[in-house]
Amino acid sequence: MASTMKTANSLLKALNTGSGLSFGAWQMLPGTYLSRTIARSGFDWVCIDTEHGNIADAEMHESVHAVSSVGVSPIVRIAANEGWMVKRALDAGAHGIIVPLLYSVEDAKKLVQSAKFPPVGKRGFGSPFSMGAFDVKGNLSGLEYMNNANEHLLTIVQIETKEALNVVEEIARVDGIDVLFVGPWDLGNNIGHPVRGDFDPELKEAISRVRKAAAAAGKKSGIYCPNGDFARRYADEGFQMISVVNDMTAVPVFMAESLSKAKGTFGHAAAQAVKGAAYGAANIISGQSKV
C-alpha cells in the first residue's frame, strides 16, 4: 500500500514532481466545515495550527480527516518539539508535521526519533485513526501504514531562532528531516531585525541562507507568507513549500473590503475596519504579521 500513501500525500507529491512547488493555507480557527472549505480552494496542503491557532486536540483530529477527505494533505503544526505532540498529530493521520522552536542539531535528531517508527526512530504504533487520512475506503491496514509511514510522512522543522540559524546547515543534513521551513517574523525578532514593513537586508540574507542550506543537503525549503504577493516572491526565489494566507486574515479582510466597497469607501476604510475587527489581520495588511 505504499502507492496509496504516496498518492494521498498531495504535499509530498507536489514537492517531488515537476517544479517541486506547492502552495498551502493556514487554518487557525477550529471547525471541519472550515477545513473542507479551505481544502477545496485549490491548495496542495492545509496547515492545522495548534501552536498559535485556537485548535485543540480533538478539533485537530477532526480537521485532519476533513482536509484529507477532499484529497488535500493535512499538515499539523504542533506547539513544541515534544514527543507526545508529535505522536498525537501523526496518530491523527497528519501527512506531515511542522515543528517550531528548534535550537540545535540535537533538537532535530530528537524530533526524528519521535516522528519515525523503528528502526529509524522510536514512534509507538497503535493508532486506529491514522490510516483513514490516507484511504477513506478502509483498505489500508495498520501494518501497511506502519511499514510505509517513515517514507511517506513529512517531518518539517521551522527555522525561527538565532541558534537554529547558526547551525542550519547541520540541521539540514539530519537524516529524517524533509523540509526547512522559515518563520520570518520570529526569525527576524530573534536575530535582532524585527519586521516593521518589508524585511531588512539581514533578514533576507538569513532567509536565503535557510533555502541554500536545504538545497545543499538535498532537502526542501518552505516559508510562511502573509499573502499571495509575498508567496509569489518566495516561489520565484526557489522556495518550494509556501503558505499563502490564513483564515484569520482572509475572513475579516474580505468582509471589511466588501463592506467598504458597498459604502463607496474602499481603501483606507477597509484597513481601518480590519484593524478594529482583527488585530492580527491588520498587521498582515501593514506587513507586520507574525508566525
Question: Could you walk me through the main structural features you see in this protein, from its secondary elements to its overall organization?
Answer:
This is HpcH/HpaI aldolase/citrate lyase domain-containing protein. The protein is of the alpha/beta class and 291 residues long. 48% of the residues lie in helices and 14% in strands. It has one domain. Strands 1-2-3-4-5-6-7-8 form an eight-stranded parallel beta barrel, surrounded by eight helices. Helix 4 links the parallel strand 2 and strand 3. The longest helix is centred in the last third of the chain and has 17 residues, at 247-263. It is globular and about 60 Å long. The model is unreliable at 273-290 (pLDDT under 50).
